[in-house]
Amino acid sequence: MNILVCMKQILDPEVPARDFRIDAARKEAERGSASLVTNIFCENALETALQFREKAGGTITVLSFGAPGAEDTLRKALAMKADVAALVVDDSDANPNPLTVARVLAAAIRRLGAFDVILTGREAGDWGAGQTGALLAEELGMPYVAFADALEPGLRIKRQTESGWEILEAQTPLVVSITNDEHNVPRIPKVRDVMMAHRQPLTQWSVAELGVEAAEYYEVIELAIPQRETRCELVDVDTLARRLAEVAAG
Amino acid sequence: MSGIALVIFGSPADRAALGLAGAAEQLGGASRAIVVEDYQPEPVLDALVEACRGADVILLSNDTYSQEVAPRLAHRLGGACVGDGTALSVVDGKLRVTRQVYGGKANAVIELRRTPAVVWLRARSFRSAATPVAALLSGSESGDSRRRTPKIIERRETKSETRLEDARVIVSGGRGIGGPEGFANELEPLAKLLGAQLAASRAACDAGWVPPAWQVGQTGKKVAPDLYLAVAITGASQHMAGISEAKTIAAINIDPDAPIFKHARFGIVDDYKKVVPLLRQKLAGLKS
């Protein structure tokens, strides 16, 4: 089974709200002193792929579309023992819309070869559009399953729903988006593997080399930091009970 | 906006469905509603493409199935999709959707540049429609007819009550609860007294104290209840991203500097193990 995992590098979501700033002209977050990290759901996806390979064999390719620094995300994925890595360098300053992202990833995937399962994270911790997997499936003409947290040989997919979980039986090829679960917490790479990952080959393309043009989809009109701070009234248990009962009664 | 279609997974009487219809009323009212019964991903997508043809706007809720189909539906109809909307407006004939980004640290207004505009909403963020959704029903779609994969072969409910997204009152526990016993012995009876659903922070779910389906926050459910009682939850921005649309937040936390108190309307600074048993007594007293 050959698996491809799409991975995104993002501004560290743990940056505290008081340090978060916006560049109004670019309608993007300011980098500031925040570090860049791999989106957690992408790491959950890679971990899911690694566990699947342990059971069923095959290869894992990791692919990213991002700034040149996204190489760090791919090197870390190689250190976690992905086999092959490729980066499509986004040289524009703008935040690409989900359709453009899907088209770029689809073009890169076609160049990389044939894959049985393509994984994405459920959403990214920056813009969180939650569309990459679904649009990629459409661009590649494949079926799609969202919110999965485990793959079993066969192919069986377990996914989370509002009220519990469900199992899907699937045939390859398909695209699956991965959410977090206690079983797919990303492993910590070994120091030796981190060092080796820096010597591994890494394919790089520009968007132009893939022949993809930016698609019209949607535009960010406004980006603003909400000002909402409520003054909390500290009460005793009697008052708490009474007010909870009032609000709960509607 | 003309030609607004609602796509409903579940009952047209659910709060989420009424919220969709309410959102559509702000744009002039829905012209049709499609209810999906017995969901299977691929056949339902095909059926929805046919059922939604000609619509300018297609509204869905923020459940698993809606989020799975919405971008694909937009793609097949040549439209554009945006998710997790909490407000809608129309400017120069184009739909604009407000949504949180960066884990709730910022709000973005996004204009859709293709038709149809396919939008999944935090349905409870919108007031319920004046007219019942049933009046709009244009048909129901079912997905089990063809042998196609992926096919859902097993469904398991770990929670039998209303979906968290539809809950009017939520009692939620965090890392400070300390273990599954705190949820079972303290929060569950409290939730029962308030007619509330139970939920949890990521820390409590990751620790395995409660099922992952209970998780509220940036990486969990986005909820909009009338009352959200946060018990032993610090209130990190990742958690607050899931409850920014809650009408009233109340908090019980031992730490007076916990960020949750910047969002709560009222609360108590003390150990929940002391507060909750007393609170239960008082609530039981108020009931009788």
Describe this structure in words.
Chain A is an alpha/beta fold. In chain A, 30% of the residues lie in helices and 29% in strands. Chain A has one domain: HUPs (Rossmann fold), CATH 3.40.50.620. Chain A has seven helices and 15 strands. In chain A, α2 packs across α5 and α3 (98-112) crosses α4 (132-140). Chain A starts with a strand and ends with a helix. The model of chain A has no long low-confidence stretch (mean pLDDT 94). With 288 residues, chain B is an alpha/beta fold. In chain B, 26% of the residues lie in helices and 29% in strands. Chain B has seven helices and 15 strands. Chain B has helices at residues 15-26, 41-51, 64-76, 180-194, 202-206, 237-240, 272-287, and strands spanning 4-9, 32-37, 57-60, 80-85, 87-91, 94-101, 106-112, 117-121, 137-142, 151-157, 169-173, 197-200, 227-231, 248-253, 266-269. In chain B, α4 runs parallel beside α7 (272-287). The N and C termini of chain B lie far apart (51 Å). The interface between A and B is large, with 81 and 90 residues. β14 of chain A pairs antiparallel with β7 (106-112) of chain B.
